[in-house]
């Protein structure tokens, strides 16, 4: 039988039972008040107070508020309570006696058995146990000292983790009393602890070796994690602690190195080669001889040389342009000088011509004038040619300078665009501003700056909104005492605004509140687990399940769930009788009896009844009566409350807690559904051990 849902468990406590037989149910509407009172009095006088209580309740249904029936009902309830109290006292001494017996504390066990017999002097089981204890005490008298010495020494050695020596002592004790369970249990415990210790050492060594392997690969964070796991097993191991400190120091150097390398790589990607080289050199100062940094410096050197060469070429081009301009100016001056010389010569010729003209005829004057005009035109043509050459040289210089300027602008824009594409908006804005400073009024760069300002403003607004949202959610969670959720929200706020005073203060408050809450839950959890463990050790599984369920609902660990599953497996494994295994419909008022062979008295105290029940009419709630008895008739029973749900429920009842189950030879169980039909699934009798 698998108990798949812990919420299907329902523990029934003795003392709150309503017990009716099928005949009584059928008589409810037929018998008169007088008849019911008579039967109730007969049952009361026969000390069957549970049945008497039933008849008095039925009589009150015939005659409501009848003082006689109410008085007798109260007397019956009081007697039931007194019987329950007596049984509780009896079982308390019996359980304590059995516990002492299992621990070989025979003097204490005998005292408890004798106290139990004061409640029920003729109980056969307790009488037999007391006699067995007396026989054991008589047999053990001579060997007790040697046995106790070996057991005590074994306990001390086991506490010191001296497993082999402890095993030897427990073996000695077992050889003194071969039938005694305790030394065998201690021997098994010592061997198990030795095995667990050996496995623990093996796990520790494995974790240390894994840490060493990670350390060799310089994965210091993983190495430290492995050592932390190892130190959870052996916190005081000197070598592991020393190695962890070594890896922690190495991790610090590695983190510093990785930060410098990341900066250098970014500079390299942005073609800031000289600055990148300086960072790689800084990395070599942290990790001398580092291959990556050395290799990157080697790659940067030709790139830096290329940049230097390009810069030198640019300067040479500027110088060549200046030289050409100077040559053009010199040519212009030479042309002007030549023109002046020619003009002087022409003037001299003119004077000579005028003087000669005085001698020559009038027709010679016309010829001279024509020659002078031709000379003038030739001089003007030469001057125009020289001016044209000078303008061409100037335009070429301007074109070269503009081409170089546009190339510089493109390089700067490309760098800025790359940062923009990488969403590194602050650095991108700086680069675009450099473009505008170099090329005043650059429309593309100005548009990008405006776009970045808009993006940054939007991001700032979103961050502020997210910060406010996180703080509001955190404060709301705090007011609702959802401290873990509040911690998450305040941490989110601090990601947006690191070291924010309000978020820092609230985070500290939430962390403390969560710690206090967990501490309170842990206290409750430990209390419930302790109760569950105590009941588990005494095989009081119904109370153990109740305690473990309370612990489980706190949600701290899986241990309670595992223990509930373990109890379910124990009960299933120790099944004694499977009285029903197929669903059967039981009509209202119908009695269904299941027979079985009587159970040995030694195991009756540990008996459980497991019943699976389904309500085919979930709109109703009603009691289902479970009775038990033997050849002499009914001996006891209990009532199961059938809830208004169609879901199948599993009930586990510790029937061994009822004295009549324990003291009588019961051979049947009977089920009656009082007011409604019910579906009975599996019905089993099991035991705790």
Folded structure, characterized:
The chain has 689 residues and is an alpha+beta fold. Among the domains are: 1-27 and 574-689, C-terminal carbohydrate-binding module (Jelly Rolls, Sandwich), CATH 2.60.120; 291-408; 459-531, Serine Threonine Protein Phosphatase 5, Tetratricopeptide repeat, CATH 1.25.40. Helix content is 72%, strand content 9%. The chain has 22 helices and nine strands. The chain has helices spanning 22-27, 33-45, 49-62, 67-102, 106-119, 124-140, 144-159, 163-176, 181-216, 220-233, 238-269, 273-286, 291-359, 362-421, 425-438, 443-479, 483-496, 501-537, 541-553, 559-573, 601-604, 659-663; strands at 577-580, 584-586, 591-595, 607-614, 622-630, 633-642, 649-653, 668-673, 678-687. Strands 1, 2, 4, 7 and 9 form a five-stranded antiparallel beta sheet that branches. α8 runs antiparallel to α9 and α13 packs antiparallel against α14 (362-421). It is elongated. It starts with 21 loop residues before the first helix and ends with a strand.
In a few lines, what is going on in this structure?
By secondary structure, the protein is of the alpha+beta class. The chain has helices spanning 22-27, 33-45, 49-62, 67-102, 106-119, 124-140, 144-159, 163-176, 181-216, 220-233, 238-269, 273-286, 291-359, 362-421, 425-438, 443-479, 483-496, 501-537, 541-553, 559-573, 601-604, 659-663, and strands at residues 577-580, 584-586, 591-595, 607-614, 622-630, 633-642, 649-653, 668-673, 678-687.
